[in-house]
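Just wondering, can you check both lines?
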Amino acid sequence: MFENLTNKFEEIFSSLKKAPSLDEKQVDEGLKGIRLALLEADVSLDVVKEFISRVKPKALGQEIIRSTSPGDMVVKIVFDEIVSFLGDKNSEISLNAVPPVPIMLVGLQGSGKTTTTSKLAKFLEKNNKKKVMMASLDVYRPAAQEQLRLLGEQNNIETLPIIEGQLPADICRRALSAANLNGCEVVLFDTAGRTQIDFQMMNEIKQIETIINPAETILVADSLTGQVAANVAKEFKNTVNLSGIILTRADGDGRGGAALSMKYVAEVPIKFLGVGEKIENFEAFHPDRIANRILGMGDIVSLVEKASEDLDQENLKKTEEKLKRGQFSMEDYLSQLRQMKKMGGIEGIMSFLPGVSKIKSQMDQSGIDEKIITQNEAVILSMTKQERENPKIINGSRKKRIANGSGTDIATINKLLKQFKMMSEMMKKMSKGNMKGMADKGIPPELFNQLK
C-alpha cells in the first residue's frame, strides 16, 4: 500500500538525514522532492500546494536550524502534516441514534459499494456487537440486489428480502420496518451507483436521505482512481450530508493520492479501508498509522492487532509449549506457514514493517517471493507423518519421492530441510533465552530486542 510514495519519501529523507545542518537551499531541495513525489502519487494540486505551504515555514524555523538532527526534525514535521491532512485521529462510525440506526452508502458504479456494505456489516457485528440488516436500493444494475443477498447468505448477515419491481423509496420504508420487527440495531442501505455523477442519481440519493434520515452517509470510493476519487467526494459533499469515506482497493494503491487528498477536499474523515477481496479484509482508518506507513516507518500496532485477530491462539500456545521443551517439528513449521498465509503472506506482513522498501529489495535480490510459502507447504504435505516428526531420516530415495509428490525437485527439498534446521536451532536458542545465540546466527540484536 502506497509503495511508490513510501520509496520516494525514504530517498528524500535519507539525503536530509545525512546533512549535519540544514540551510534554506537544502530545505527547498527536500521540499521540491516532496512536492514531486506527491504529484506523482496523484495527490490533488491544491492539496500539494497547501501541504508544502504548511511544512516550509516550520522546516525553516530556528529550532530546526539549531537542531542536532535537523533531518529527523523535518521528518517529524512532514509526519505531523500528513496526519493532519489524513484527519488527525481515527473517526469511529456514529451509532448514537434510536435503533435501527440507518447508514447510507453512496458512490459511483464499480467503486465496490455492494462488497463494502457486507464488509461494514460484518465489521459492526464483530467489533460493535450490533445486529445488522443490509438492504439493496440498486434496482438498475442487473443482479445487484441478488449480489447483496448472496453476500449476506455466505456471511450469515441478515438481508432484506427482494421484491421485484419495488422502487428505492418503498424499499427504504420496508427495510426500516423489517429491521425494527427483527430486532436489528443497524440498517445499511446500499444505494445505486452510476458510471458518472448525474442529476437523476443525485436526486434519488437526496430523496432516500430524506426518507431514512441516516446517522451516517458514507462515500465508497476506489483508491486507485486518485484525484478522480477526490473530485467525486467533492460532488457528493455538495449534494448530501456526507459524513465519512471508505476507500476500497487500498491494498493495490501504490500511489496514495486519494487517501491524502480526500479528507482535505471533502472535509469529512476517512473511516475505513478495504484492503482485499475477502470480507475480513477491512480495517479502521488510523491517520497516524497510515502516515507511518507512507513514510516507511512501519505500523507495528496494526500488525499486532492483525496477528491477534488472524492467528490461532490455541495452536500458538501448543507450539510455545513444545518450544519450551526444545521441540520443533515439520508439522509445527507447516502450522507457522499456514498462520503466515492467514496474515496475508510475506508481503502482507512486510507491509507493516519499517523500511519495507529495503526489505523488499533484499528479498528480490535473494529470490524470495510469495510462492515459497505455497511450495514449502506442498513439500511438507508430501512427507509421511514419521518424516515430519523426524526430518533427519529423509535420505536420497525419500527426497526423490517427496519431490515427485510435491511437484518440485531435490534441490527444493534440500533448501527446505536446511531452512528447517536453522529454524529449529534458532527456536531452541529462544526457548533457553539465549539471545546471543541468535546474534551468532546473524539475526540483528535490534530485531530480537523489540521482541523481548
In short: Strands lie at 101-106, 132-136, 158-159, 186-190, 216-222, 244-248, 270-274, 282-284. The domain at 3-86 is CATH 1.20.120.140 (Four Helix Bundle (Hemerythrin (Met), subunit A)). The chain has a mean pLDDT of 78.
